[in-house]
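Exercise 7 asks you to align residues with tokens for two separate proteins.
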Amino acid sequence: MAYVLQVDFKMDGPFGNEMAEAFSDLAKSINSEEGFIWKIWTESPETNEAGGIYLFETEAAAEKYLAMHTERLAGFGIPAVNGKVFAVNEALTKINKGPVE
């Protein structure tokens, strides 16, 4: 069973192409995290929020990443991080074309 990690936090930017340039090395490093499958990056310049939706192989891997990422974001000056881990209902997700494999 796969697990989704949803993370969001307040951030003053950058957003869009500037965000892509600023965080490309970070994005590449996420690929080597234990149990990582994929990530969708999220942003809202209008509300100064950013985050992501991640898919991990196990709940333990998702929880471990959330703890590490929360600590890393605190080091970037982002003290409040919202993070939740959910089990994926793969049968229903496949009906709706969700990439869970």
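Second protein for Exercise 7:
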Amino acid sequence: MVHVLQVDFKMNGPFGDEMAKEFSALAKSINEEDGFVWKIWTENPEKNEAGGIYLFDTKEAAQNYLDMHSKRITSFGITDINAKIFDINAHLTNITKGPLKPHKD
């Protein structure tokens, strides 16, 4: 069963195109994480918030990534990290067209 990891935190930027440029290597590295399926990057420049919604193939993979990622972003000086791991109701998610499978390039 796949699991969603939701992470958000306060961040003073960069956002938008600048974020895409500065974090592209990080984005590519996330693709190599064990159990990783996909990520949606989130940002709210007006409130200085950023984060993401991730899909992992197991709850253990989501937790392992969260542990590692929390240490990484804490090393950047980010402290107020909000994170939750959720089970997914696949039946209802399929009805509402939620992507539960890996993206094919």
